[in-house]
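Anyone able to model this chain together with calcium ion?
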Amino acid sequence: MHPMLTIAVKAARRAGSIINRASQNLERLTVTRKAHSDFVSEVDGAAEEAIIKTLLDAYPDHSILAEESGNSGDASKSEYQWIIDPLDGTTNFLHGFPKYGVSIALLHRGVLSQAVVYDPVMDELFTASRGGGAFLNDHRIRVTKRTQLGESLIGTGFPFRDFTHMEAYLAMFKDVIPRTAGIRRPGSAALDLAYVAAGRYDGFWEMGLAPWDMAAGCLLILEAGGMVSDLEGNEHFLKSGQVVAGNPKIFVQLLQIIAPHLTEQLIAENRPTARQVK
Ligand code: IPD
Ligand code: CA
Ligand code: CA
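re: yes, here you go
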């Protein structure tokens, strides 16, 4: 295993034990609301602190982009940037709904190079290094070989905080549903993407994501032989927060159904000048 991935795994497991411990006493947690339907507990902060400490103890010069504490270190000086979601699926976690995980990715000169998604409930560790394949608990994983959308299980995430693109999303949803074998919305984008890599879904799409929701999951998919793009089929997914993914055959079919529903605003958000990964 690449030494930087080993450190990321250590960080993810530490966060996982903090999360597991806290899950045994959910009533005791202090929950605050960051925005509409955007809740956070002290667990998110504690897990993030443990991750950052583990990474910086090993690599003090690296820079960080983390959901709860934002940017630290000097991204313009360091070639390495860690992108961290300490607890993806916080709403699930707070309700005792067991679908949440830790997501840690490393960008090297802006290129996704290491990825960890860890599900502490199932003790499932998804890892990937650029060029080295994707793994689930040390077993190689690959995307599915299914070619027919009608036989495919598709994951998605629908708007629940920001409703700007609700109409466009519902139009996509309406068009996708009857063409698939089923749609799932468990509520953790990081796990959703890892599930595409592991062949549990044949495809996935969502918009309005942050880089920390998807950076690790996207590398897992690419290393598992899948495809990832933004909703226009280009590579600006980390910047735009829009993602379509799947095995190569299903990815193309999904994109063809979704693309006609893109609004001018969605297309504008998708261009390179839109939201930057800092
Ligand atoms: C959320 C989850 C969810 C997705 C949201 C994310 P959080 O992350 O990944 O599945 O639909 O857009 O914000 O807030 O639980 O870390
Ligand atoms: Ca998240
Ligand atoms: Ca989170």
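The longest strand covers residues 80-88.
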